[in-house]
Amino acid sequence: MPFNSFLNYPMSWKPERSKLKRPIYLSLAEQLEKDIAAGFLLPGTKLPPQRELGDFLDINFTTVTRAYRICELKGLIYAVTGSGTFVAPNAAKSVTISTDNLTGSLIDLGFVSSFEQCNDMISDTIKSFTHS
Predict the structure, then answer these.
(1) How far apart are CA 19 and CA 24, in angstroms?
(2) DSSP type of residue 43
(3) Mean pLDDT of 102-122
(4) Distances in Å between the alpha carbon of 63 and those of 25, 67, 84, 93, 123?
(5) Could you count the other beta carbons within 10 Å of the beta carbon of residue 115?
(6) What CA–CA distance (Å, rounded) separates 132 from 129?
(7) Which of 48, 118, 120, 121 has the most crowded Cβ, counting Cβ within 10 A?
(8) Does residue 66 contact residue 51 with C-beta atoms inside 8 Å?
(9) pTM, whole model, 2 decimals?
(10) Contact 53, 12 (CB under 8 A)
């Protein structure tokens, strides 16, 4: 980065640029998920703003926004308008049961996905009721 130096800049999370692969937003989301799972980012930790992290990684801020959105849909982080983006309280505790080893002849009646994966569906339904 020719103009901005982040060598001694205090940021709660500094992902490694060298680990980013294409597509960058998926790779960044994966790094965030791994750092949360490893306990490097504790619940309630405020994440760097998208523009700031984009400048740090020398990528477009919309790429960071897309990565944050993926993690938000997974229930790993949440955003508060005007306050920032934070690691979710239960982010390190996975309640999702993997479906990787299920066969086609098996009907799983257990809990197979996290509640956060339903956020968009629920918000769309709520919006349809409030606009009626």
Answers:
(1) 10
(2) T
(3) 60
(4) 5, 6, 17, 26, 24
(5) 12
(6) 5
(7) 48
(8) no
(9) 0.68
(10) no
